[in-house]
Amino acid sequence: MEKMETAKRNAPFWKPCLAIFLLTRLWVFGVTYAVYASGARELPPESHMWRGATGREHFLIEPWRRWDALWFLQVAREGYSYRPDAQSNVTVFPAYPLIMRTVGALTGSLALAGLIVSNACLLGACLALYSLTAGKAGDEAARGTLLLLLLFPSAFLLSGIYSESLFLFLCVLSLKSGLRGGWMSSGTAGALASTTRLAGIVLFPALVFERLIRKNLRFAALLRDGAPILIVPLGAAAFFLYLKTLTGSYGAYFEAQSHWGHRLASPLFSFFYTATSPLNFATLLDVGTALIFPALGVIAGRRFGWTLGLYALAAVFLPMCASNLTGLPRYVLAAFPAFMAGGWLLRRRALLVPVLVALAAMQAYCIHQFVNWRLSF
User: What is the reported pTM?
Assistant: First the structure.
């Protein structure tokens, strides 16, 4: 028995991680193609939703060309353009479309490149997150963390033509490196994250907290030894500078967001605005996410340290400042310490399995609605 326990502890951590990744991808892709093959709703070719790309892709690719995926594809294909009176693609940060365009030069298909990039980044994020969680709470909690993340209702987007997997991968790398004192790698990953999504800037206060408060250092020491983390916001700053040269306005990103009904507001306003909207599955998912994830962020802070806890809370509350909760279930995928807290709380199989079954059922429903153009994130 002792030898078996020793062998179990010494087993390569990537094996269970890879098994979870493959099994959940089999589920996600299986449900997606089953929904599409059953006669999914299609938009007419003249619909503006296609963003200038109405041609059909291969069966294995077409179900993923939905909603915001078409914005990412448009930026990768055509670059940026801005219309002050309508929705425009300047709300898409550049890192993911740029990588997609680079890979697309090899594959011959930007959509295929997007799927390859997203799933490669997702595997990297899973490996890094499993290692981080196992080191803090053990293998049972690490397995639960990955399962909760990958079966969360909106988590099928992590395999789609969205920037979520790249962003998650960079955020996990940045904070994991920062917790271990690898400030150069932490700052570099953080800067790339803020070039992927605006929410990447929340890595900066979390890393400063780790450096100044947790390590009990003075500000001068941060400038001397932790200077690389100061570059974290530069990715977003560079993009806003580019938008100034393109549009003449530093605020073009926020002006464009207003055409989706997103305006700066308090999280409480966004919560009550959504909670009083017509009751449907999307509203319940948005409101439930807004209730559960702040609590998980607090638990993550108490259990794993407030560097991770504060990051999780900021990653949840920042998108809640957009005057409504639309898209929140997608954006909280980056709040990985909240999933770590869930994995730790549900580390007993008797507690975890029923939750996973419920999440998988909701995820299948979300995939059905997404592929049929009825639910966006």
Answer: 0.94
